[in-house]
Prior knowledge:
The complex is a heterotrimer of chains A (307), B (584) and C (265). Chain B is an alpha/beta fold and 584 residues long. The longest helix of chain B has 18 residues, at 445-462. With 265 residues, chain C is an all-alpha fold. Chain C has one domain: Orthogonal Bundle (MetI-like fold). Chains A and B meet through α8 and α9 of A and α2 and α4 of B. Magnesium ion binds at residues 42-43, 174 of chain B.
Amino acid sequence: MLRYALLRLLGAIPTLLLVIVLAFLMVHAAPGGPFDDERVLPTDVAANIQAAYHLDESLPQQFFRYMSGLLRGDLGPSYRYRDYSVSELIGRGFPISLQLGALAMALALIVGVSAGTLAALRQNKLPDRIVMFFAMTGISIPVFVIAPVLVLLFAVKLHWLPAGWSGVTGPAKFILPVITLALPQIAYIARLTRASMIDILGRDFIRTARAQGLGTATIIRVHALKPAMLPVLSYMGPAIAAIVTGSVVVEEVFGIPGLGQFFVRGAGNRDYTLVLGIVIFYATLIVSLNLVVDVLYGALDPRVRRR
Amino acid sequence: MSFLEVNGLTIAYGGKRVVDDVSFAIDYSESVGLVGESGSGKSQTALALLGLLPEQAEVHGDIVVDGVSVIGASAKQLSRIRARRIGIVFQDSMQALNPYLKIGKQIRQILLWHDLATGDDADARVIRMFERVGLPDPERQFQVYPHELSGGMRQRVMLAAALIAEPDLLIADEPTTALDVTVQAQILELLEELRDNTALLLITHDLGIVAGHCERMLVFESGRLVDAGATTSLFASPGHAHTRALLDAAPRIDSGNAPAPVNGRTILCAEAVEVTYRDGERGQLHAVNGVNLLLREGETLAVVGESGSGKSSLVRAVLGLVPMISGRVVYAGASLEGPVQTRPVAQRRDLQLIFQDPVGALNPQMRVQEIVGEPLLVHEPGLTSSARLDRVRAILVKVGLEDSHLRRYPHQLSGGQAQRIAIARALILEPKVLICDEAVAALDGSVREQVLALLRQVQRESGLSIIFISHDLAVVRSISHRVAVMYMGCLVEVADNEQLFSQPRHPYTKALIDAVPVPDPIVAPKKAALRGEVGSLLHPPSGCVFHPRCDYAKDICKKEQPEAMNVGGSRVACHRAKEIDLTT
Amino acid sequence: MKVSAGILLFFLVFAIVGPWLSPPEYLRTNFDLLLQAPTFSGGHFFGTDELGRDLFARTMLGIRTTLLVAMVASLVSLVIGVSYGAVAGYCGGRIDAIMMRFVDTLYALPFIFFVILLMVAFERNFLLIFVAIGAINWLDMARIVRGQTLSLREREFVDAARLMGVSTPRIIFRHIAPNVLGIVVVYVTLTIPQAILVESFLSYLGLGVQEPHTSLGALVDAGVNQMEGASWMLLIPATVLALILMCFNFLGDGLRDFFDARRAT
Ligand SMILES: Nc1ncnc2c1ncn2[C@@H]1O[C@H](COP(=O)(O)OP(=O)(O)O)[C@@H](O)[C@H]1O
Ligand code: SF4
Ligand SMILES: [Mg+2]
């Protein structure tokens, strides 16, 4: 088991390196520097700026400077927020995004798994049809459509909930963003749970458990839940990525000062170091969470573990 | 009143009846056999007794278990019947046990649910049960997952689960069909030993098992109960034509006319063939270990052995479907080398193979006409399409099919029809050697007899040589001229049919023959002849591979691999073949 | 399933024919008719936007762009995914292990960020969108085709064909390909909505197609900015987008059930 986890960890390192190199190269291969669109600077001033940001060095030099910074947790200075380092900006934005993302994921898992299980148990009956219709709608409506429509409905028209973030106190401000972020994932997880639950409930070993007299609730709890959750577990990787992506939109629509907003702003005004830093940060996060998911999978499926 | 009474049981799916007006009863502690061909409704009946049919099944009639009606019973009533009154063992233990749960936990759950025991007491009872069903090291087995056990051990676990709540009736639905004969014998013996006062409903397609283990029998034919009575009297004088037909189609290993040996020239010869596979990280798996074998023109050579003994690997290596590590294969004077794709087309034409799974061997996206005609496309490209179609028609007639089958897809064929198509495809090239790898194993008795008759006829007409791989010794007895016995990748004995069955020279051959149930209630079943199970091919035993299970093993057997020698007309690989007497 | 196919066909015709019939309509600004609500009498069924452009014409254009991007991107992923998967599956063994290890590695990458990075770094290049989306989606396709090919390769009818002397190309095209086709069709149908999502997401972020050109995502983005006064500008393109996505998903699900049922028999 430990060996398996360590092996996966070793496997993750090249992936991360690849991410860093790719991201770094992409940013540095971009035509035009970050300060091109500012008013024409005197050459010596421009040169000073270049030197201050080490843009006068060769690419490998810059890369190694960046890497050694990275190992110390230093992602360099932001090009636009001149007084802040990228690490400081991430430190400010991430806790907010994390709260949002974790709440959305928890909501998605609870609602998605319950709805999916319900649908599987009432296969082709009314509850199943209803759940599946909503799930299909859920996976078909992008976050950037849900977000404004919910705002339009609940904030602008009905005035039930706040439309924005700043100035609002209390948990009310979380409701719309979290729901928006969770909805598509609820839909995916419900569909996935239903499909795998139906698959598992149709297996012979469930028939054996029924032949032993066990009740439905016990059969689900003891025999079906674990195997039925395996596909959901392997979907956690993509789900995390989707929530991170979604948070970019949600933070923008609701004006939440999280990491996603920094990213969009950074992308908009060519704050290369910031964008690069966030990509690397998120990549590390996603790769490590994937690793956790992998190891968990190995722990839950005896046939994987013994290999 | 009997323990179980079934009256007018009818099960239908979408109006189509799969069980039709069936009535029978089972008394406390009696043993009843339920026989019939596949699809005759045996399993459906068994499931109905426990109220386990799927929702879409339309069920009518009465099923009464000790005064309680099963049909229309509440969940609570059903739960009291299941496990505690009736326990069940299913055929495929790999599917029937939960692969994600340790076996100890799965069985413990039954005790907890039925309030039969709690805590440590429950664990202790499970371990005692494991001991009774003969699981080695029961405390450790508690923590094991099903896939870590062999098929035979898993079936013991299924038995433990079925019996732990001490039911009055044990249903066993084809409990040994997926197992090797020697393991089957062990499980059947265990079943007898454990059940003492528990009634038994033993579902099987094998009349030999019924003859040996059931006092009464029920005969099903397409959903209807056509015959019932004491086993001895039904075997002596069947009450229904279908029972007669089943008995006629059941081959007997202990009698019958063994085909006389053929004296043809050698057409195919394998020398010191060795095949190994890589098993992931775990090392080399020795599937075939230096096998020498020759096939004569016009004869049927059977290769028998339990699953994993290397039968298929041997012929696949001969055909070039898997690489040979060492050894040589000579066909009609020329040596066969390399993977099949690289061999001369003319050579490939002469050697054809028939597979076990008749449907899997046919491309699901092609029609019969294209499937059977495809070989001609390769070997006789000059043929016009109408000439090709004529040839296809002719060969279909030969295998007993009609023009109406030409445009069907494989999934529209029955198992027997599909196997005929596969045979037609192989025969259209007029091969010299036909290799049948468990070609009749998936077929029911009567269909199997028809396919065997077809093979005999083709052989008579065209002098075809056949290698007939099978695990079923009774079938081998009826079709082959010579028999080769394999065990763990080694050839242990080769002899003419009559010679081998009447006077086996190798202890393994003897055990194999004794393990085959004889469809005759007069012939008492023998004690399970072999202990233990086939070992791991990753680490085969030293010396004679059979020594861990052999009653005659001596020191030399553990050290030296026996060479094949001629003993009274047989070729045997056993150190003690000359001294031991196996005729008892 | 038939309904979904019908609606999609309708949109397709709509997207091809629409903008072509009245080419300049989606460009024509009309400062007398800014932010008109939808009416039937005025000729602007979907109303007008903040520049007075006819939203009906712009929606047609948006559908065209979105479908075009999605189809081309799916084609890219189809070609890469099928060839990669088929090679890995047919070769098997070491080659397969290495090729699939590479796919696994790529799987763990947060692709969308790379795409955004790409778009930021290299200006807004339409072609890049195709490539980027296709590059994301081929992974799934490769995995599925590889799995299918691998299991087919082991099937006995392929062995039978080899024994009969059938050539390798004929085995691939006559025996393996037709059996992989079903699942590929299903997957393409399910890849298209994913591609649409990515394209609209980029357009929504302002990184996709550029004004005055438009796509459904860009229209939604424009609608969000005007939603308090002119909710139709948000609701109409949002509904169309959701409808298209839903149709593709229904179609894909239906096709999958169809092929599953056929395999089961
Ligand atoms: N869920 C089902 N739907 C429709 N037909 C079924 C179903 N289950 C079994 N059958 C049919 O019932 C018949 C009897 O099956 P079974 O009892 O399994 O036969 P046996 O055990 O004798 O081989 C077969 O024709 C089978 O196809
Ligand atoms: S060689 Fe020894 S162990 Fe092997 S079969 Fe003969 S007697 Fe038994
Ligand atoms: Mg059955």
